[in-house]
Amino acid sequence: MARRGYLLLGCGKNNTHGLQLKSYWEDDEAVATWEPKEHHLAFPGILNGGIIATLIDCHGTGTANAAAHKDAGDTNQHSMHVTGRISVKYLRPTPLNRPLTLRAHVTEMNENKITVSCDLYSNDTKCATGEVVTVRVDQALFLKSK
Amino acid sequence: MARRGYLLLGCGKNNTHGLQLKSYWEDDEAVATWEPKEHHLAFPGILNGGIIATLIDCHGTGTANAAAHKDAGDTNQHSMHVTGRISVKYLRPTPLNRPLTLRAHVTEMNENKITVSCDLYSNDTKCATGEVVTVRVDQALFLKSK
Predict the structure, then answer these.
(1) Per residue in A78-99, is it b (16+ CB within 10 Å) or e — as a string?
(2) What confidence score (pLDDT) does residue B40 get?
(3) How many whole angstroms from its chain centre is CA B81?
(4) pTM of the model
(5) Residue in A42, A89, A92 closest to B85 by CB
(6) Is B10 in contact with A146 (Cβ distance < 8 A)?
């Protein structure tokens, strides 16, 4: 399926400590692959659940922002979507020694909120499934709000 | 309040890339403090939501395992509790430039499942709240299951 464009993600390509997740569209599904490092373990050979939540959060907000920009036809908006709520269900231990694939799609979208469903696979086995509810914020106000 | 003992946490004190979270009991509440590093950002000055989920996951499972051991009066059990489901609600941006406090307590406990509620504070401001549902697994079988 054709790649329609890369998404910007929370971790950011310039954060050398970040997860450096890269995503692309496959039709209406946003897909990302990522390779765990040895220190991302929870137990020997098993990926940490917090890292899984971080991947789903990053890929979920990236998908929401890309969907919002696509919908508005404008990539220079003053608003952005940030995570309001995340839930992750861990279906089985996720192996540490092979690449993972994240597959996300928008399940609900209105002016102020975009909800994204995101599954994580090791080979063809679904290891975790999550939902990210993002809320629209004014970018300048949000960055000043801390 | 008296400290009753340190908990073991997912990130592990020997993982130099880990978050090195340390927890202790204050009566029936498990408390941890943690200081963000500059590269844990989501945006300038604001902590990444995935790191927040990781902290709540680690502190939640640490609390569940400590509560299980305390309840059983036996720290050498062959079972342990791992995360089955986590949900986090982000209430406001979490500042990056000061220590955070996590406060957790057990809300439900039976033979196979322990649920923990966990709040994250910056100074006295609650920035995020989460729930971690942990499930009891046989340690040896779980570690072989990947």
Answers:
(1) ebbbbbbbbbbebeebbbbeee
(2) 79
(3) 12
(4) 0.86
(5) A89
(6) no
